[in-house]
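Take a look at this chain, tokens included, and explain the fold to me:
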Amino acid sequence: MKKMLDRMSMQKRMMIYFAVPLLIIQTAVAAVFYPVLLEKYKNQLDYSREQSVSQAVSFVGSYIHNMEYLAQMVENNGEIHDILSAKEFNGARNLDDQYREFYTLNRAFASLEFSNSLYRFGLYISEDIVYVSNQYYIFPDTRLIMRDDYERMTEYFAMGRDYLAHSEERKDVGSMDTYSMLTLYHQIRDSSGENVLGVCSISIDGERLVQVMENANITSNGLVYLVNAEGEGAVSSNADLFEKIEEQDSFLLTKGEQAWESVRVGRTVYYADREPIEDTGWQLVALIPESEYNGQFRGLVLSAAVAVVVMMIMIMGASYFLSNYYVGRLKKLSMEMQHLQEGDLNVQLPSIQQGDEVEEVYRNFNFMVGEVRRLLREHFQLGKDARVAELRVLQAQINPHFLYNTLDLINWIAMDYEAEDIEKIAWNLARFYRLSLNHGKDLISIGEEVEHVQVYVNIQKFHYDDAVHLKVEVPEELRSLACLNIILQPFVENAILHGIGERTEIRQCSIVIRVARQGDDILFMVKDDGPGMTQQQMEEVTACNIDQIKGGYGVKNINFRIKLCFGEEYGVRYESVLGEGTTAFVLIPAMTIEEAEEKVM
């Protein structure tokens, strides 16, 4: 073994020294603690299923006891009791008296139902009374007589007990549609207790009880349901499975006293538990398939096995990384030197301050790379300065005054020859370039920027036979405020070129420029009636990637300049509808020329 280890590399030997002891410890811990964890998991699972059944019993019992309480409220209601106990109640009376009775009863039951919205109320009285056809709160007692379980109901009444059963009742206040309900029927008697005045019903939506059953069912193929004192099934968490089990001979699961005993229903073995609903004679039955219950423990075993394997992998991985760290520092140096040879000047070896020979080599390498980067930066700066100097020389070669003077000369000659159109074009062009160049400054007043757009449109009118119309709305108090030079003209130019310039079917081009103040900001709106743009086109137009900006004063350049000068919250956005036009919004901060110069320059 020792010879085999000696032939291995240092990294492999260190991996073995790290991993083997940890794997032995892990195996021993798993062997000791797994049975304990399995038992705790089983106890927790049993507790969970018992709690789910107990909570369901508590919910159902609470609903039923509330129904009993509400039935007593109906019986003790003074208005209802006075009407039902009146001597002339079942006698011959005129319609006015019966209408007043109906109105009083309807109001009383509506009030009770409004205060207890989970429950539906009903009253069953003699069918000889006219308003029993109401079929809303008041019903004929023949409706009870027609029930299949009427004899059982009378037996309960004879024993002085309420009767709980399935029924079809209204689901919501104001609805005449009926739904499956669980209903408690209660006899209303007179003060002496000898005479029956009627029967009231308190119902709760069966779907609410179904939700309780579903919440109590902790397994996917289990079943939770209610059975009455006669062993008849009622509400269940799974109607299809309930119907299937109900067909089996061993369905009557209300017998037996042992909790979670094993029972066979057809070919399936279940763990069954039965919990009585207090003072009702009803029971809640929970069935959990034995295979599914045991399968949860198989899942735990599989999870434990996976955890052990994962931990082994983690131990091996940790051993690899630790050994690689201790023997990999020279590999790191070799790799970084290779990157440096390939031209990557961002290489940097970590300084761990271990004080050994390798650390000294690391420091010398980092110093060498730093010196190379410093020399390259100096070289780059020298080249940049030379480029700037060349650009300034080229700019100096252009004398804007020569352009202004030449255009003024054309203007005067046109006046001498009475060439009015040439005079206007020359004057507007001179004014256009004077405002555009702005003595080399980036800032201009809003009034001058709007004038710049106006003279541009004046020139375009000659080009397009006066088919371009511009409307400008600028409050006088905003004209002296500052804005960047040439941030409106490109939008007007786009509106003209992509509208009347590209589409011969477009005869007119109308453009509106509005300037408004919004708090501490200025909002420019440039609206046209052109062909409009798609969402993708709007996103491409306003893209602010400097690598994609090719034009001098294009929309992308405007958006970039604004964000660069004033921040990301400012810039350009579009709203457009195809076939109707486009609106460009330009947002900049409201500043005087002096304030803007301090911020931008």
About this structure: The CA atoms of residues 182 and 313 lie 57 Å apart. The longest strand covers residues 178-189.
